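Hey, resending since the last one bounced:
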Amino acid sequence: MIDTTAVLDTARYLRNVRPIDPEEIYEYVPGDPHPAVVRETLRSHVFELGLREREDGTFVPVEDGPMESTFDGVERFPERWTRALEDLLVERYGPGWPDDEAGDRIRERIDRLKEEYFADESVSYDEETAVAYAIYHLPDYYAAIQYVLDELARAELLPRRCRVLDVGAGVGGPALGFHDFAPEAALVGYDAVEPSDHAADLFERLLEESRPSFDTTVYRERAETFDPEGPYDLLVFANVLSELDAPVAVLERYLDVLEPDGTVIALEPAEERTATGLRRVERELLDGHPELNVYAPTVRLWSGESPTDRGWTFTRKPDIEPPSFQTRLDRGGGGDGRYLNTDVQYAYVLLRTDGRRAIDYEPDPSRVGKFADSERHVTERIDCVAVKLSPDLGEANPLFKISDGSEAVDHYAVLTRESALNESLLRAPYGSLLSFENVLVLWNDDEGAYNLVVDGETVVDRLT
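The structure tokens again:
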């Protein structure tokens, strides 16, 4: 047995003097344990010691404070992860896998996954279904999580020493994205809960390529029964809540292991069923937990108000290039683009318990109208404030979902005449707070929604 206390005491003594090398400090430990045993002991106590392991095998201190973001979008799925997945495919099916029977089976699995998804059926993962899921979804999930992490990092809400619990981790798209987003000077302990052995096998295989300071552990258990040992800085529920029978109950059982200044990240695909389902979960969870608040993007601007509209809000990011494993699979199936998945669009919510919000603003009721009262303003021009909560959804005219957090039915801003005074409606990014002056309120009977008509008489300013 190694004297753990002696290893930790030595590490604490040396941490601010020089890099800690297991090949050196084993001599200071009673019994002269093997350096490999010392290394494993240090690895199991890195958060306690505030150390990260470098590629050269030495351990150095992790600075306090938040991660810094150098993120500038995702153009493609990186070659290192592409190669790791392709190596697995070649091992399992042979080098010609996209063009033979194996390719046909994988294409059939992807077709079935799409059918089950749109039919709202649960997916059971055999080995080939897990492979098909990885081929089709790794790149877009890899990209989406990084945009959300960037929002937190730029607000200095992502610590350099970060413990993450990824519930329903799948084949590892969010984990790979987090790995590449986090700077090398960060220390990340990434715990993943994934009940499917086939998906977990893929996750572990892909994460074999991770750097030492990104430490992953996979728990092959169901989200409903896993007993987490916190605390965690981030709880991640990526593309899983829509697959659970009781998503609110599952989220509730994990709140106790969230750090007081931690964040819950929940993401779902942008389709109506999953995106509106996420909003239902969000609203029910907040109704039962007053200690929780929305950090972004669906901030409630009016105190004491909560939206009850349909809640179909999502963001869209630039497309990514299809990785070679998708293009080869698609070409083997006729090359019609059916097996390429380059869209990056998703619904998300960030929840916290410390009261922080991305938009710290409360409207003045003497100056602006509330969406809860829109019925009384139909055919009138009003001033109001709202958060932009969609990309352009229009056909004839630019159209954007907007919200002030009080609405009972959907509200949309319709741009009928662009000018220098209202161009912020087009230019502002998703989640921005906008003020509208002299906007015309109309009822759209076909859509069952309110249209706020932005014309040449309307001024739109970006407040955040």
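The two ends are 58 Å apart (CA to CA).

Sorry for the duplicate.
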